[in-house]
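To: structure subgroup
Subject: Chain for Friday's discussion

All,

I'm putting the inputs and outputs inline so they're searchable in the archive.
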Amino acid sequence: MKRTINIKVKHLVVGLLAASAVVWLYAGLVQPKASTHLAEYRYRQGGGDAKPALFRAIDEAPAAERWRLIREYMIEPGADTPLGVYNVVVGLGSTYTTYRTDDSGPPAFTVEEKLPYLTDYVRRAPVDGYMRRAAVQQAVCYLGLGDPKAALEELASAERRLSKNEAKSLKMMRATLLADRGEDEQALALLEELSADLSTNDADLNGQIAALKAKLLVRQGDVASAREEVARQRKAHEEQWEQLRQQHPNGSGMRSVMLEQLGRLDELLRQTAAVGEPAAVSGTVVRGDGSPMVGVGVFLRHRDDVYHSVLENEPYQTITDASGQFRFDGVLPGSYALYLGFTFEQIDGWTWPVGGNDWIDVAAGKQLTRQVTLRKLMDIVSPVDSEAVTGDEIRFRWEPVDGAATYRIGVHIPLGEGGTAGMTLREGVRETELTVPIEELYDEASLLAFTEKDGKDMPSPLSLLGLANPDNRFYWNVEALDADGRPITRSNGYRLDESTIGRFPFFYVKARELAPEDRLLLDGRLDEALAGYKAAFAANEADRHSLRMIVRVYQGLAAVSDDPRPLEDEALPYLLRMAELYPTKSAWSRVFDYYYSREKWEETNRAYAELARLEGGVNGYTSSVYATSLLHQGRLREAEELFAKAMELDDSHRFVGSYIAVHLYRHGSIDRAAELARRYPERELNPGGPVWAELMAALADEQAQAAAPDAYWRELREQLEWVFAGESESVREWSATTGYTGMKRFVEALLQVD
């Protein structure tokens, strides 16, 4: 019995030891894995503790697991270029986000949070397919912290761990950073090393090398060598791209962004060779309190490139240093605009009040400076926080802004699926409040937008109904402008912290209920809705809403029709009735547009006169259109005078070509017309659009070289007469046979002015 007991005790001890081993194995292996899985799950779900939990999991994990977590959650979704770091890009009156703005899903890491882990990975992790990206992202983080020297050192160190082929992109990044720091010789040496190791398969990298070499050569004053470099690489790129098209005959829509950029660079270099040395553009980005903004992306973009979003390989890009400063050397002549990239943390509660026409005109050899100052977002008072407006008028109120001469108020209509239609409600408001009758709000606040139904485009019902929809929630904003009409600050922007959120600019307009016709409209049954509105107006001509909606539905249907003119003709009686009963700018602008498009000049004159009598006068665009109609009527003196006024009202100078033409015709001086072209450069976002100063210079050279200058002048006047008369076919027939290329380019450009 005693023996048996001993045996059982011994077995019990062994069993306890075995169980302890299992517990130890569970605690040492299973539990950390479970903890890691939980941290990963919590991070993917988002939330306030998501990042700290993942950091703890990475810090406590064994090496192999540590590298996996860094790869999966930092490197894979990370930014391989400085542009990828920025959540918000601002420029020329536009703002767009490059990262989600909601709170769902995994939260993004800041550069400060990522940098220690990326550095550890680059220095200690096994060399794998992620090492190159990790090194690039590490450098991007250092740049975001205003420390390019550290970025250069770490890139060079990482290159030594990688194969020669994998290190190419790091070497290119290093050359670019050296060029940004003005260390041209070191940059050129790196580019020579790169060029020696590249093959024709490295097409984009070859293009980047050529562009950077050209930039450095231009900075040294050797424009000729820069042109040779770009031309050589452009030719090689074209040949390779042609081979690619032949291999993929169905890829007709393929395009090479690098080839387009090399072509643009080639043209700019040609211009530089003609006018002289390049220029420099520098500046500082600060907040309103004077504190410098470090790690802000700065992009200097040519007028032919601003029609699309900022690209990763923009030719002029840099990052502000520890003092908030930036600089671009070797800038080729032309019109440029600054675009800035911000993280949410940088722009939270602030705005860069850049206007839609804040251009930088770069001339040869000039040293230009631009100070960029972010301003605190302004505060609104009412309507806010989804307030329901039920009375006969709506009152917008906001806090005053120091230095503001006027305010501009905008309203925005959500269209579903994330779309929004925004419009200016009033400009030139001098007080800190604006009261608008509800019916006028319904009349003015509409902007045609489009959606798709059954594979066809159709006007968005929500945009047609506008603010007359009591079920839609709208929002508004206000902008403060100085005495010169330049923006100071605005209310709409990024407010992400409790201290910056303020009041929400949302409101409802509950002054009416939906009519049966409105419900048909919102269901997408536009023809039935139109019939209903017509019947309601026929029964009661005081039904302003039905009359308004008849005009809008016709406008929407005409916009998606292959032949809009019959629909516009059907709408005209209702449009005239609207303008007569409720003479708003919106109504009379549509009447003006209708008669102008039909070349009914007497009616056009009357509509313009009615517009001019309304409060606020006529804007620069409408004045320019009317000046064009005066040209067609042969009233050249009046047209020239009105164009001169319109140029001061419309900063885009969209119709400056017509102004130049009538001035040239009446006064007979190319030099004086050229001065107008320089004073009023066209600012439309039109890639490849006319540069009128260049066209006038070519015209002057051609006349000077003509065998018979007087005959040249007579031929030019004749073609201008055809342009003024609207005889575009006669101009095109002449264009096909003339030998005067400068005159041809100028006259053909005039036909495109609209």
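Points worth raising on Friday:
The first helix runs from residue 2 to 45.
Residues 2-54 form one domain.

D.
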